[in-house]
Every structure is written in C-alpha cells, then in structure tokens.
C-alpha cells in the first residue's frame, strides 16, 4: 500500500490494480488511458498475458537453424522454408528425448507451438509442446497431394500449354549463379544456333530465398517483350534441394505466365511439380538447350534438301510441259494448219454450189408454175371468149359508155341504144325489139 500526502491532512493510500477501488478509478480499456490516468505496468502485463494465452496452439513447419540444450530445457530457432523469417522457441528436454532420431541443425520439422507471456520479465515466449521431423516420405506425400489438387484445377491440361517459337530471338534463362546448368544451356544452345541471345537471371535455386528470387526473375522476364521463351534450369540434387520447384506459388506463377516456360530441373528421375505445369519439360538442362533452338547444320541440310526437291519438281514440270508441246505440235492440225482452212473452203464451195442449184431449180419451177397459172388465167379470161367470136352487149348510158350487160331481150326494148364489145373494139347499135324466143333445144345448146 502506498500513500499520497494530502495538504492539511493525513496521508491517504493510492489505489492499485489489486485494491478494491482500482476498477472504479483506472481506465477500463487501453484507449482510455491518459498521462494523468495511466495503467500500472502490472495491469498491462496481466491483460497481455490473458490475451496471448487465449491463442490456441498451432502446428507450424520450419527448418531448425539453432538448437541448444540447457539442463531440462532446450532452445531452438525455426526458419520458414520459403522466406527469410525465423522464430525462437523453447521446449522441455523430454520433448526432444521422445524423438526416435535426434534433431540436428538443418532438420525439417513440424512443431506444435503455443504462445506464452512471462509476466515478470514481459517477454513473449513460443513454447513447443510437440515436435516431429518431416521425413522424405512425408515430403513426397505432401508434394503428391499438391500435385493432385493442382491437376484437378486443370493447371496441367494440355490445352493451357503454349507452343514454343520455332526460332526464339531471345531466351530468358533462370538458373543458379555460375552453375553447371547455366553452362550446359549456353554451350549447347550456341553450338546448335550461334546467333541465339540470352537474358540471364542468376538466382538461388535452393534454400529459403529460392522461391522469392525465382518468382521475381520469372515476372521480370515475362514482362520483357523481347523474350520469346523462358528456361528455368537447375542441376540435380536431393529432394529437399528441389522443393522450391514444387512450391505452389511458383507453380501458379508459371501457369499464369504469358511467355512459354521450359522446365529443366535436375536429372531424368527428378520430377518436381514445375515439370507438370511448364509448357515443355526437358529431362536435363542440356536437353532443354537442344529443344528450344534448332540445329543450324540440320536446318541448312533441310534447306538444301528443299532446294533440291524444288529443283527436281521444276525440272519434271518443264519436261512434262515440253513433252505436251511436242505432242501438240505433232498433231495434223498444227503440222499443216492450212489443211483445216482448205477443207472448210471446199465445204463452203460445195455448199455454195448446192445452194445455187437449189435456188435455180426453185426459180425454174416457179417460172413454170407461173406460166401455167398465166395460161389458166388467160384461158379463163373474158378476152379469150371474145376472141372466139362472142360479143358483150351493154346498154349505152348517157355518157355514151356501156354499163349494164344485156342478158335477155327484155333488158333492151325497141329503140334502146346498145354498145357491143368485140374482141377488137366496140360497135354501137340500136335494139329493134325481140324477134321471138329461142326454142328450148337452142337454149340448151347455148
């Protein structure tokens, strides 16, 4: 109990976090504290301890980079497998003693961690309640689960894979610093196509920084419009060394890249998930160099073969067309083209004569028919009747010209002036009346 001197009176006790009046005089929350009304340090520590210890224990994965045993306890430092983040923790020695194989620096482990707050010193401690090493079998099983999950999403589908250019102008190469994989790719690519260009990004290909550096290099090369294809190359190694190339973030970045990506990781037996998502999987860095650029000697040989084949095809075409021309020229119509004109001229002359004969015959027949018809017309003409001695008797009109033909005596009574039309000329006469009717026999004879 502490006291405060009150002017003109006796000392009064100050309230503390344990006193009954603390709840009424101290701020209820940290935001309500002020310089004139602060929390006691112990109150803050207790509240932190209560808040932190409410957090549940969590299983985490990391790599042991420090391990110290001190009597009944031990202190370890775990580092993230894909980032430069570490975490100190403590555990009892009996937790370590339960392990079948002793933990060493560099071991990959999973640990059950519970945060604790030490009230007296104000320190945050991560207490490991259980720890287990991650074996190769566990890593392989985890990789296969991730492979199946990504395959179910369709990231490995052939329809998503992009075709590599026939002759890339510039190749992006992501590889280790001064590594054998880099030398293999450069040497074999230059041997096959000396004019090939590279944009090289040297990165860490194993360890905690590998994924971060490879992702940065991949995004940089993918954004370069002059890079036609990207090769991620690394030599062989243990399973733990190749784990960055099965990282989910890296695999998804390769799948989303706009530039074709070639995976050339390790040896033929190595098979990280990157091989499945890449647009082309090469068994080795050397194989990648052979598959991304053509062999200049082979291409020149193909050009020569194509030229020879083209020359043979043109020669065969010329020979074939020459033979056709000779065959056409040997035909009679081309050997003596005037024969066709002569034959047609003879046909024309024959047809002309035939037409002249036909027309002449038609004219002769028409003339004969005309003469015949004219003779018929003349035979039926009234003039012929007059020529045989007959006459036509007409009544003379007032104009002195005969009009009406007299057919019976009744039409020409006595004194009627008549006009007689003879075969040659006319006569005038006067009727003296009827002299009697002719007998029936005479009428019949007439």
For the structure shown, list the relevant keywords.
5-stranded parallel sheet; alpha/beta; OB fold (Dihydrolipoamide Acetyltransferase, E2P); elongated; 5 domains; Rossmann fold; disordered C terminus
Outline the secondary-structure elements.
Elements lengths: L2 E2 L7 E2 L8 H4 L15 H13 L4 E13 L2 E7 L6 E7 H5 L10 E11 L4 E11 L2 H18 L16 E7 L3 H13 L4 E7 L6 H13 L6 E6 L13 H9 L4 E5 L7 H5 L2 E2 L3 H8 L3 H34 L2 H4 L1 H43 L2 H6 L4 E5 L5 E4 L11 E5 L4 E5 L9 H6 L1
Parallel strand pairs: 8-9, 8-10, 10-11, 11-12
Antiparallel strand pairs: 1-2, 3-4, 3-6, 4-5, 6-7, 13-14, 13-15, 15-16
Helix pairs in contact: 5-9, 6-7
Write up this protein:
The chain has 446 residues and is of the alpha/beta class. The chain folds into 5 domains: 13-51, no CATH class; 55-134, Nucleic acid-binding proteins (OB fold (Dihydrolipoamide Acetyltransferase, E2P), Beta Barrel); 140-291, Rossmann fold (3-Layer(aba) Sandwich), CATH 3.40.50; 295-333; 375-433, no CATH class. It contains 14 helices and 16 strands. The strands form 4 sheets. Strands 5-4-3-6-7 form a 5-stranded antiparallel sheet. Strands 9-8-10-11-12 form a 5-stranded parallel sheet, with helices on both faces. Helix 7 (248-256) links the parallel strand 10 and strand 11. Helix 5 (180-192) runs parallel beside helix 9 (285-292). The protein is elongated, with a radius of gyration of 66 Å. The N and C termini lie far apart (193 Å). The model is unreliable at 1-22 and 439-446 (pLDDT under 50).
- From the N-terminal CA to the C-terminal CA, the straight-line distance is 193 Å
Number of structural domains:
5
Total helical elements:
14
* Arithmetic mean of pLDDT: 84
CATH names the topology of the largest domain as: Rossmann fold
The overall strand count is 16
What's the alpha carbon Rg, rounded to whole Å?
66 Å
How does the helix and strand content classify structurally? alpha/beta
Strand percentage, roughly? Answer: 15-25%
CATH architecture of the largest domain: 3-Layer(aba) Sandwich
Order of helices and strands: EEHHEEEHEEHEHEHEHEHEHHHHHEEEEH
Shape: elongated
Query: Which percent bin holds the helix content?
Result: 40-55%
